[in-house]
Design a protein that fits this description.
Layout: E1 2-3, E2 9-13, E3 28-33, E4 40-45, E5 52-57, E6 62-66, E7 81-86, E8 97-102, E9 106-111, E10 116-120, E11 136-143, E12 146-151, E13 158-163, E14 168-172, E15 187-192, E16 199-205, E17 212-217, E18 222-226, E19 241-246, E20 254-262, E21 265-272, E22 277-281, E23 296-301
Antiparallel strand pairs: 1-2, 2-3, 4-5, 5-6, 6-7, 8-9, 9-10, 10-11, 12-13, 13-14, 14-15, 16-17, 17-18, 18-19, 20-21, 21-22, 22-23
Length: 304
């Protein structure tokens, strides 16, 4: 999908579940404007071929379409939709929506008062953060005072939320304690990550249970926790961390962070205040730019 400056939304590619929103399931090889929508301010796509699509308009109206086998369209069913349909069910009723986020089998909508609503498949992992491990096929309110949401789009789903007070909270899959649960348990309730109240951005990396997280603080420092078998935490070794550890970056501050890679073959990227890019993690296929394909456990400059 491509969101244009005039607020129109355009889609192309695989369409087996109506995720292009064009009223059919025919694949497209070039962009076609998605009907129904106008003045779109946010749009998201779910996971790989089993894709649900979401859009928010400037007037606060929220639309969802595409694959619905896990209830991620929020209409109380598992029937797919081949065209954008406004969603107002459950706790979304009467709420102007300002942003939407999607994970592996779930979706999250943020309304204009900072309330977060979630729906989809929730058994086993509790990734909706709704306080229980039951599926919710219509939206339920799960948090207040939320400013941003971070999710992963593959199996072993988890979610992080950054609140308006700068605190970071986690729920969902507990593998390698990426959700903030030191014991490694799956969690259906949001718990605060112990890194203070100055978080400006977070990122979730890894697939296939190899979850790990990064958090950027207002002062330009970064904390990392979770799986670290190939050094993606950038803390100097390849030992997993059940609690946040400070990433050692001397003299400079970090302005942006990102996680990339799949499974345990993962890397982290750090943009410094002088424009320099550093990476750490898995070295196979030269993913971390190391010519010998070795893993790197500390932030390493990329020559551009």
């Amino acid at each position: 999908m491509a969101l244009c400056a005039d607020g129109t939304l355009h889609a192309t590619g695989y369409n087996g579940y109506g995720q292009l929103g064009l009223g059919d399931t025919t694949q497209r090889n070039q962009f076609v404007q998605v009907p129904v929508l106008n003045n779109v301010v946010a749009a998201r796509l779910g996971r790989e071929r089993y894709t649900a699509a979401y859009a928010v308009q400037a007037d606060g109206k929220f639309y969802a379409w595409g694959y619905n086998g896990d209830g991620q369209l929020g209409d109380g069913t598992t029937a797919q939709a081949n065209i954008p349909v406004q969603r107002t069910g459950g706790t979304l009723a009467g709420k102007p929506i300002v942003n939407v986020y999607c994970g592996h089998t779930a979706a999250y909508a943020l309304d204009n008062t900072g309330r977060l609503h979630a729906w989809g498949t929730n058994t086993t992992y509790g990734n909706l953060g709704c306080g229980n491990f039951a599926n919710q096929f219509t939206p339920v309110q799960v948090a207040i005072g939320v400013s941003e949401v971070y999710t992963n789009s593959y199996d072993y789903p988890m979610v992080l939320i950054r609140k308006t007070d700068g605190s970071l909270w986690g729920a969902g899959a507990g593998n390698y304690s990426a959700n903030g649960n030191v014991a490694g348990n799956h969690a259906a309730d949001f718990a605060q990550i112990p890194i203070g109240n100055t978080v400006v951005k977070a990122a979730i990396g890894g697939t296939g249970s190899y979850n790990y997280c990064l958090a950027l603080l207002q002062n330009g420092t970064v904390y990392a926790w979770g799986y670290n078998g190939n050094g993606a935490l950038a803390v100097g070794d390849n030992t997993n961390r059940t609690t946040p550890a400070l990433v050692p970056i001397a003299l400079r501050t970090v302005t942006d962070i990102a996680a990339y890679g799949t499974s345990s073959e993962q890397c982290s990227a750090f943009l410094l205040d002088d424009g320099q890019l550093c990476v750490a993690g898995y070295g196979g296929s030269y993913a971390n730019t190391d010519n010998n394909s070795n893993w790197i456990g500390t932030p390493y400059p990329v020559i551009l």
